[in-house]
Amino acid sequence: MTTETPQGELLTALQHYLQETDFAHLTAIDQPDLTALFSDLAGLKTEVKAESRQFKATLDSLSEAVSTLKADNQALAEELAKANERLQQQRREDERALLLEWLDMYDRLDAGYRAVRQYRPVDGLFRHSKPQDVRFIASVGEGQEITLKRLEQMLQRRRVFAIDCVGQPFDARTMTTLAIGNDPAQANAVVLEELRKGFLIDDQVLRLAEVKVNKL
Length: 216
Prior knowledge:
By secondary structure, this protein is an alpha+beta fold. It has helices at 7-20, 24-27, 34-118, 130-157, and strands at 160-162, 175-181, 191-196, 199-201, 204-207, 209-214. The model has no long low-confidence stretch (mean pLDDT 83).
């Protein structure tokens, strides 16, 4: 068709086109069903609320479980601490009992060592064997001295040390008075003699020293 086509033919062609063309598809667009849409939205909202409540319930359960677990762990930690303290206390008591037995052994050895050192053979009875007796007694004393020193080293390795008493002012925390003396050359309340050694362990009294105290 050209620009020279008569106007009548154009009108005829347009009329034919309009008659032959189906315009129904241009107006057949589906309109949304608002009722169904709102119903679906309401259902979705209900599901979301239900899932939110379920999620919140799950979180609450987890929070309660965590709190219970924390409380159980705290209780367990406290019980373990108490059990450890009881164990340490029992160990200290056992160690103390053992060390006191060692100190009793030390007293016996020390008493024997002192007796040996102070012993002197009677000339009239041991005239022929006196040199041999003196040597024997000296060797016994040396053996006891070595044993005493070893025992003292064992005690020191376990933090046990003798209390220094003689010539020191009386200390009721570490000493107990068993005898009273009177020496004008010494100050009042000074320890004149140690009757039984006292010992400390870690700066704590393991056994009180038994002493003789000066009283003017």
